[in-house]
Batch of 3 targets.
Target 1
Amino acid sequence: MITLDVADGIHLVSHAHVNCYVVEADEGVTLVDAGLPGMWAMVGEVLARRRRRADEVRALVLTHGHFDHVGFAARAQREWHVPVLVHPGDERLAAHPYRYKPQRNRSLYALAHSRSLPILTRMAAAGALTVKGVGEVEKLSTGIALEFPGLPVAVHTPGHTDGHCALHLADRGVVFSGDALVTLDPYTGGEGPQIVASAATKDTHLAVESLSAVAATGAGTVLPGHGPPWTAGAEEAVRLAVDRGEH
């Protein structure tokens, strides 16, 4: 599914319950996350529909290094010569996107949450099991506007992974929350604002604590890594996620 203009100049690419985003500005395009391998052609379609060329893509910024966010990163780097940025805490994970230890066993957790099985099956069909890591990355600095289209500011939100970052576009009232806050948890099938389950999160307690940084952006729109956009404000999304707690 492609949804143009989910926010000002921001386009959503969603497939198999995984999201990535195309951010437009006069000076070019920034990609936020690389989804799954099967989403590569969909991003190309967005560029074509917006009459943008591949050489206008200035950067691919990863919220974190898990396989379902690194999907086509290596291909974008190879074919479009796009720099890939990730927080130093996730540099190793981006190179080896399956080598992480969540708080709880993924397989056993999924068996106990049957609503997750169709979601995880669709992700696998979209290439979730065949992601190539990206080894040559650039440092994603936090707290300063990046010199890429949209001028995103990375906000460190550890817990889901060590180097997880949200991306704040203040002038557009948007925060890309990645998996720090989602509106659909692939590992439970649960809907609404929440952190991702312990089956895919390194430290759920820290993940809940990091939600305060998402709320502090004051963004009106939250664009998550999984699930539909949230337009009732980051503070309300965080309140609901905190009430939901760790799982």
Target 2
Amino acid sequence: MRVCIIGAGDGGAIAANQIRRLDREAQIDVFSKRGSLGCPPCEMPLVIGGAIATWDELFRGFRESSFWEKRKVAVHLNTEVTEIDRGRKCIIADSEKYSYDKLILALGAIPVIPAVPGLDGKNEFSLSTDIADGVALSNAVARSTEATIIGGGFIGLEIAAALKARGFSKVCLLVRREILRSYLDEDMAERVKDVLRQNGVELILPAKIENIATKRGKKCVGLSDGELDVDFIFFATGAKPNVELAQKAGLQIGETGAIAVNHYLQTSAPDIYAIGDCMENWDIITGSKRRHQLATNAIRTGYIAGRNTVLGNHITYEGTVMPFITKVFGHQIGAVGFTEREARERGLDAVSVAVDTPRLRERFNGRPAHYKLIADAKTKTLIGAQIISEEIVSGTVDKLAVAMACRMPLAKLVQIDSCYSPHVQEDQVAAPLHRLIDKLGSGDG
């Protein structure tokens, strides 16, 4: 069997590894138009902020050439695939034909830059899975002290923290509506905004950008009520699925603009699979189509598609509950499921509680946690959670993600055993769960 994989990021690497584990004789070719293997944008702020010393430290595991060599996978870097010939079951890359029995599209996503008048490409940066983007931004950081970040997603916040860690005197965050709007409701977002302001980040929201210009080596951002002069601009304004090649091949594009797939991750052509940022996802809670562009999803779907190419659609993909975690200025921000706003937009009878838990482990400098839990009043199941703390919250987010994926009733969820030690921050989710159950009027059942 011959498998071609277009895209050498995390999803493509995991797919190739699974294929090799199941079929020692398969011929596997991986193609990337980039000069090096990919890296998730979420890791790049660690180098930019100085937490990791060099870019080389991000190249580990399946980002090293030895990974591919050991598994006898042919990696074609600096090689752009320009056509998929479905009839002849081959791809065209740099005028060469490569036949395939199965094809996996791990095309990723492309940064979206808003159409603001005056953009000229000078001192304007964004991040993708191409490490060259991170290096270019890092070089700008080394010669600058002032920056404007446009966009309020987690990459924008992480870059803001990285710039302050590098001693920037001025970091302005321009947000059109609300920070972390995909993950937090406004009441929880207010806590994050307080953290940003306390650490010297200037917040401007809602921000209406009229134009951008380059003047005397500076970037000038024209707002409806003034002008900002900074050394460079960083765009954290989201990404769109990279679907041009799939469209050209006549594959079905879904309602979200990503490549439509079934539960086996097959596209509208049965021998072609799509994974990661370029595929159309759906949520487990309602089954609604959505985009979910995180490295963890690329890895999950790469695993499934890789095994299905060999085993013949052996594993189904069930969707996502959108678990998320980031860390900004020492605060972990975790979320899973819907925000209360999105739940109501999708027609659910959302009921929520917000609880500030007390500080535990006080003699060990323990910190409080802030919870918001959202339930569906009809099914009495959890459909959303948001947690902010200086303690580690990822374990709680993951536990709630499993409960939501299993559609576990709240009365059962609250009874899950938890570990405890006075040396380790206790999982305090039981307190908000008790309040949520009481608010729903469901008693103990």
Target 3
Amino acid sequence: MTVWIDTHCHLDAPEFDPDRDAVRQDARARGVAHCVIPAVERSNWSTARELAHRHGDSYALGIHPLYTGRAEDGDLDRLADELVQHRADPRLVAVGEIGLDYFVSGLDPARQERFYRAQLQLARRFDLPVILHVRRSADKLLKGLRELPVQGGIAHAFNGSLQQAQAFVAMGFKLGFGGAATYDRALQLRRLAAQLPEDVLVMETDAPDIQPHWIYTTAAQRAEGQPQGRNAPGELPRIGEVVAQLRGCTAQSLAQATTRNSKAALPGLAGLVP
């Protein structure tokens, strides 16, 4: 069986409350050997950690830009305390999910940037890679990385330009590809997925979000009562097949390459994934 690593899966999300363990078991049966569970705010740090230990996966600790509005300033100190307390935990592999989001309205850009930079400093202090949220913010994120360089990590759900992709790669980052690449209309993203060097790609689902095209329901369908489809880590092999087709390679060779790349991006995975 082809074996995959899902480098970004919010298994702790409430959408999985009814059947979380079954979802993870199904993904494993489909070949998803490992999931990285990035926390998004203080309230779910312990949940992400517990799930990683329960399922033999890994986790990251951070404050997501979408949650900076309700985060307390003291949460940064609490994050530092968590990183101190669990620094010997082999399943803690990154600081994340952190970053900037200039797509969602109502967020304070200055506050986002302050939390982003503070968490880059924590990654430097604890010598951890970072998992970056990149949404209409690539240039600003790169500016922060130039000023506060870290050991690398993953630019999650990357959807920027070729030049931005090359800039992240030059700073030691791998680029996360998932369900968005399954849409025919995502021309620029699919070109990147096809043309970028093999050693810079990692695979992810961002479950329960970023549904592949076979799960997504339109606004019209939802208005008629059809619920939005729920993405899950078990969709990763099929997403991988789409990306492999774009690249003109086999799913197995892509899985092998992206597994190597995942371990390079998040070195802690080397001791967790055979």
